């Protein structure tokens, strides 16, 4: 028996991208569930709408760094900047988002768990556990990029208590990849609303479990990027965020 899950991450207040991904997922019958891996808000124009949409769709998930820093009214989003302009943009995005979120959104973000374990084949059998995180088992700030060593990933598995056949899924870098190490599948699910791998389409991950090793497939979905960019401009957010949507790069 096999079962499939949809995993989506890093929506970042891009409602146009989220709606396209949810429609794509809804068009695939037989999926056992859909989960998000955090960073619902930040950078784009619809933090309240995205948070409400996932909630009304019954999609559970974990807290990204953006969600937890907004919820806690922290001094910074916890995002890494590579130059002074990026740092300036990070501050602008964080200030805009702090101002835009309602008390209800903040409460929803504050209630997101740090980690979520799912047993798609049932907790009554020794089936695989899918461990959902935003980044690593100890912090939602660390970037788990594709060039991380097997040793790094083994340590993640150990910290998470993962066994052979399990899956550790995370986002945060906005660049999808997956790799099997000691029969644990590590999956970076990419980003719905702010991809940085050069492909501007919205991304989500289809996970298949049962009958052999778990498998991950990154799915890309076209959406109305012009409308998302117009919303960025109308919100008074920096033009660079719209440019990033068009190029699929940071
Ligand atoms: Fe993110």
Summarize the structure.
The longest helix has 17 residues, at 84-100.
Poorly predicted regions are: none
Instruction: Assign the CATH topology.
Output: Purple Acid Phosphatase, chain A, domain 2
- The total count of helices amounts to 8
Q: How far from one another are the termini? A: 40 Å
Number of strands: 10
Bound molecules: fe (ii) ion
- Can you say what the CATH homologous superfamily is? Metallo-dependent phosphatases
Mean pLDDT: 96
Order of the strands making up the biggest sheet: 3-2-1-9-10
* Cα-atom radius of gyration: 17 Å
Description:
The structure is a single chain. This protein has helices spanning 15-26, 47-56, 65-71, 84-100, 103-110, 150-160, 225-234, 239-247, and strands at 3-8, 33-36, 60-61, 116-118, 130-132, 167-170, 177-181, 184-188, 202-209, 215-221. Helix 2 crosses helix 5 (103-110), helix 3 crosses helix 5 and helix 7 (225-234) runs antiparallel to helix 8. With 250 residues, the chain is α/β, with parallel strands linked by helices. The chain has a single domain, classed as Purple Acid Phosphatase, chain A, domain 2, CATH 3.60.21. The chain has a five-stranded mixed β-sheet. A five-stranded mixed β-sheet has the order 4-5-6-8-7, covered by helices on one side. It contains eight helices and ten strands. Bound molecules: fe (ii) ion. Fe (ii) ion binds at residues 10, 12, 39, 64, 172, 174.
């Amino acid at each position: 028996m096999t079962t499939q899950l949809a995993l989506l991450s890093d929506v970042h207040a891009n409602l146009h991208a989220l709606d396209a991904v949810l429609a794509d997922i809804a068009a695939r019958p037989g999926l056992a569930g859909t989960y998000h891996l955090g960073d619902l808000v930040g950078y784009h124009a619809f933090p309240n709408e995205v948070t409400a949409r996932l909630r009304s769709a019954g999609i559970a998930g974990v807290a990204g760094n953006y969600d937890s820093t907004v919820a806690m009214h922290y001094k910074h989003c916890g995002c890494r900047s590579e130059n002074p302009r990026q740092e300036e943009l990070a501050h602008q995005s964080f200030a805009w988002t702090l101002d835009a979120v309602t008390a209800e959104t903040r409460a929803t973000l504050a209630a997101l768990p740090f980690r979520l374990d799912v047993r798609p084949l049932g907790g009554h059998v020794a089936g695989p556990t899918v461990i959902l995180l935003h980044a690593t088992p100890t912090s939602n700030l660390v970037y788990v990029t594709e060039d991380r060593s097997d040793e790094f990933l083994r340590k993640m598995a150990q910290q998470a208590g993962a066994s052979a056949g399990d899956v550790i899924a995370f986002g945060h870098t906005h660049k999808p990849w997956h790799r099997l190490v000691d029969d644990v599948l590590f999956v970076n699910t990419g980003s719905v609303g702010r991809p940085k791998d050069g492909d501007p389409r919205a991304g989500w991950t289809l996970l298949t479990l049962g009958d052999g090793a778990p498998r991950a497939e990154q799915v890309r979905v076209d959406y109305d990027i012009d409308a998302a960019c117009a919303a960025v401009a109308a919100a008074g957010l920096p033009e660079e965020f719209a440019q990033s949507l068009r190029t699929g790069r940071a």
